[in-house]
Amino acid sequence: MSKEITAAQTAAYQKELANDTNAQVLERAVSHQGILATAADFASDRDMTPVFSIDLDTGKVANQKQSGRCWMFAALNTMRHHLADLFKLSDFELSQNYTNFWDKFEKANYFYENVLATADQPTSSRKVAFLMATPQQDGGQWDMLCAIIEKYGIVPKSVMPETYNSSKSSELNKTLNLKLRKDAVVLRKLVADNAIADDIAAAKDKMLKEDYRILSFALGEPVSEFDFEYRDDDKNYHIDKGLTPKSFFDKYVGWNLSDYVSIINAPTADKPYNHTYTVEMLGNVVGGRSVKHLNVSMADFKQLAIKQLQAGQSVWFGCDVGQESDRQKGIMDPNYYHQDDLFNVDFDLSKADKLDYGESMMTHAMVLTGVDLVDGQPTKWKVENSWGEKVGTKGYFVMSDAWMDKYCYQVVVNKQFLPDDLRKIQETEEPTVLAPWDPMGALA
After folding, report:
1. What whole-number distance in Å separates Cα of residue 108 and Cα of residue 284?
2. What's the whole-model pTM score?
3. 325 and 387 in contact (C-beta within 8 Å)?
4. C-alpha 30: how far from its chain's center?
5. What per-residue confidence (pLDDT) applies to 96?
6. CA-CA distance, 164 to 387, in Å (whole number)?
7. CA 112 to chain centre
8. Could you tell me if 164 and 254 are in contact, meaning their C-beta atoms sit under 8 angstroms apart?
9. Contacts 24+ apart (CB under 8 A), 249-252
10. How far is CA 322 from the centre of its chain?
11. Residue 115 Cα distances to 119, 127, 187, 198, 280, angstroms
12. Active site residues
């Protein structure tokens, strides 16, 4: 039976607070400065000095501005680091707008297919409600960008630069989601009316044609062929004519994307370590690469990232960036704020409980470009963000190893760094399918 709060209870709470000699001082501090400023421990500034035993030179940071494309920026950054080293292009960027266009176009089709697959369910079903909550958005995961590149390739940023709507995406997302929800009404009605397959296909084709027009106006139409003209760091002039987006990727990046795999750390009871997982309804390209995660212990997770850094290659990773971090200083450290001491309240939750109870999930993707090893063990990590140069140290953040333990959920590594047993599992095991709303399906 429910119990109301009684007057006796509140009186007791008030009396206890009145007897606390520090309460008034703390109340003044918190009410005037805010919780985080009052709880900050600036000893973390000293401990998070941006000096690392392994430190890759990756040039200037990019800026996703007012968009949620961190996963895309981070992935393209790992590729441009490689390209820049090969071709002496230190300030070069790949076009985030190009991959953004095709991602949104493919997400529309992916949404339509999921609408049709669930058209026999009521709008009150959890799966239908999940689909309609956010038909598409800026976010994504590593495998989703690979699916785009494998189908469409990539281009230099100079070939398809940013637009107002790519850098400030709220208007476009609102417009697209309005249209996609309306399209869902039409598709579900066609199924309910027992329309023939040809009529449903024709309706969907019309919808996709409209989506393409909207995206072309907002983001610009993608190029199919272009010339790549540039000066390298030695001021030598180059021009490469008649490239396609796919031939550009093959020539200037040249990665076998199937070699790069998603490694997660999700210590929840439903996801035993050393097994693979996928997420229902998570993806963008119908018929393209699907999301597949290999769940490992945190010790294995870190060692894989370190091996790739030691080999001179940066590491895409996903985390919950808003937790216990200072955006302006670029410090990510669980010892930076002490709300528990401030309020005399135990706020501690295990990583598994944070995931299971909705306190944490992957919200942001960045790039590991360095690590500080002391006696072979990591103490802090260098992080390349995509929020421009005005935060952190010219856009680079410092992440303590303890913060990685608590809030990092995913890294992408070349499977050559996997031990034989884990590589076999990753390559051969059929993944367990998780529910659409599982936290490992969160989009960065």
Report:
1. 8
2. 0.96
3. no
4. 33
5. 98
6. 17
7. 23
8. no
9. 249/149, 249/153, 249/154, 252/83, 252/86, 252/87, 252/228
10. 13
11. 6, 10, 7, 17, 13
12. 70, 364, 385
Encode pLDDT of 300-316 as tens digits: 999 999 999 999 999 99
In angstroms, the CA 227 to CA 238 distance is 10
Two tokens, residue 327:
């955006």
Q: For residue 118, how many other CB atoms are within 10 A of its CB?
A: 19
In a 10 Å sphere around its CB, with 0-12 CB exposed, 13-18 middle and 19+ buried, how is residue 434 labelled? buried
**Interacting residues of 34 by C-beta distance below 8 A, sequence separation 6+:** none
Tokens of 300: 């294995």
Tokens of 175: 């417009």
Query: Can you name the residues that pair with 96 across neighbouring β-strands?
Result: none
The answer on pLDDT for 1 being more than 90 is no
Q: Which of 9, 15, 22 is nearest to 341 (CA)?
A: 22
Separation of alpha carbons 230 and 238, rounded Å: 5
* Residues 229, 158: Cα–Cα separation, whole Å: 9
Residue 373 CB: number of other CB atoms within 10 A? 15
**Strand pairing partners for 264?**
295, 410
Scored b (16 or more CB within 10 A) or e, 175-210 reads: ebbebbeebbeebbebeeeeeeeeebeebbeebeee
Ramachandran bin of 273, using left for φ above 0, alpha for ψ from -120 to 50, beta for the remaining angles? beta
- Residue 205 corresponds to which tokens in the numbers above? 């084709």
